[in-house]
Write a structure and sequence with these properties.
This protein is mainly α. The protein is built from eleven helices and no strands.
């Protein structure tokens, strides 16, 4: 308990004093995870809506792949991205390995199935009578899709929050493709691992508390948005 207390004090000190190394790690963590969730949302929302609203051959297989992806070990994603971006890999010409873009790519792959799967589940949870009612009123398929997505927005927000929570706390994939390079690819999770290995437990605890604070603030913001959406629905 003493170490946790000292870690809490150190965390406050690092944040209040504006320690450049700590803030650089925080900034990079937010940038990488933020971009990953952004791209995951752009791809995941239409994919989830499409799976919820369309019936086609192979749909069940695709849904099974999405659900599998929701529980995919991040270290496996990191390995696949590493092989793709290595010099002998098909994407080696990009020279992304051990750079933030490689970390964003890995985290996007992790976030995408979560956002798509939870979006699909949220839309499927909307009253099934709404769709034929909208069609009878002359709504186009695109208008129906947007209306159902709007009605399912509480669940969709939960999916985006789950995606952010999964990538901001992820360590295996970013360690593999980012390399944990100081001042370049070191984020909160990889910094915590490094400080723990070197016996700097107070700093590791301080960074852990910062990570928890970021997760708490992100979830609090989503809860606030969900509350507004729920009030709008009632």
């Amino acid at each position: 308990m003493e170490e946790i207390g000292r870690g809490f004090v150190k965390a406050l000190g690092l944040l209040i004093s504006g320690d450049p190394q700590t803030w650089q790690i925080i900034r990079l963590s937010l940038e990488v995870s933020g971009f990953a969730v952004f791209f995951g949302t752009i791809l995941g929302l239409p994919l989830g809506a499409w799976l919820a609203l369309r019936r086609f051959r192979g749909r069940r297989l695709l849904i099974a792949l999405i659900y599998t992806g929701m529980g995919l070990p991040p270290v496996v994603v990191g390995l696949v991205v590493y092989l793709l971006l290595s010099r002998s890999g098909p994407l080696g010409v990009l020279n992304w390995l051990f750079t933030p873009p490689a970390m964003i790519l890995a985290q996007t792959i992790i976030a995408l199935p979560l956002i798509a799967g939870l979006t699909m589940a949220a839309i499927l949870g909307v009253d099934q009578e709404l769709r034929p009612q909208l069609r009878s009123l002359g709504a186009t398929e695109r208008q129906i899709a947007w209306t159902l997505l709007y009605e399912a927005r509480v669940g969709v927000l939960a999916g985006i929050a789950a995606g952010f929570g999964s990538v901001i706390s992820e360590v295996g994939a970013v360690m593999l493709v980012g390399g944990n390079i100081e001042g370049s690819t070191r984020v909160l999770t990889t910094a915590i691992v490094l400080q723990t290995r070197t016996g700097e437990f107070e700093l590791a605890i301080a960074l852990s508390l910062v990570l928890l604070l970021i997760s708490f603030l992100a979830n609090a913001a989503v809860i606030q948005l969900q509350g507004r959406s729920l009030r709008a629905l009632l």
